[in-house]
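Researcher: Can you fold this with guanosine-5'-triphosphate in place?
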Amino acid sequence: MIHHVFIIDAREMIVVQKKFWIIDVDKQEMQQFATRVKASQMVQIEVIGSTKYIGQPLGRGVVVLCAEPVDEDTTLLERIDKVTFEFRRVICHEEDFEAFMMKVDKYVTTKLKISLLGYGGVGKTTMLHLLNGGEPPQTYIPTIGIDIQKVEGARIGTYELLVWDFAGQDRFRKLWKMLFSRSRIVFLVTDSTLENVLQSKDIITFLHEQGLSSEIIIIANKQDLNGALQPHLVQRLLGVRTFGLIAIDPNDRQKALDIIHKSLEQTVDWDQLEVDTIDFLP
Ligand SMILES: Nc1nc2c(ncn2[C@@H]2O[C@H](COP(=O)(O)OP(=O)(O)OP(=O)(O)O)[C@@H](O)[C@H]2O)c(=O)[nH]1
Ligand SMILES: [Mg+2]
């Protein structure tokens, strides 16, 4: 994830600084890196400590993106090219600064894949509607294949949530193993009946057999129904972190988003959402 964007001018002043994440960057280290980029007049990538720096000369200045060591060089190269191209347009007065900053936002955003798995009719599509703030569907229309949707208005730092809602009916099950890979989190939804919870145990075994490495989180849905097993009981039965939900209740939207936030906490270092700091020094 790119967490900082800097543009440094010919006098080595930071003219653009945007912080996307709570991670701090050692400014002196970053500026020394920028000086090396400027001297080489070539794109440079260096990992220093826990930061991967990528710098590209721009006239007598330098564009620097700060990312994480795990970020792929090819992706970072693509992004720095775009940021540099767009900033050049600002300098040439083809574009205003605000439009540029919006584009920077777009380029540093990473799509984060979240998968919803579980048997047919347990409420996966309803949960997707809930996350998107839409009206929950009143009738059960089984999903065919897969439905992929961006969760509007629910960006987490520079992550944009992309939810993959899988069809739960048996005949679609073979799709799962092809498609859940690269998912940051797999939510396994159950309707909180004892029968379905026990069936879900088989899904967990299946996912592990398929080599799933992402985190599995259980959603004990339909908590409004009589006899619904409470989340802590589901957790005891399945041995996996479990959260309760009523996906048909629009009031549970924030709860569903919080579940995603909490689940991400383990993979991403974050205590705070986007820190929106823009300093523009003439
Ligand atoms: N009472 C209650 N009903 C729910 C809840 N969540 C979903 N439902 C209902 O359960 C039915 C099935 O929901 P879906 O979201 O379509 O189920 P699904 O898991 O996507 O099913 P497939 O697409 O076949 O895999 C619908 O009629 C929903 O209205 C809930 O929290 N409480
Ligand atoms: Mg569905």
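Model: Folded with guanosine-5'-triphosphate in place. Residues 268-282 have pLDDT under 50 and may be disordered.
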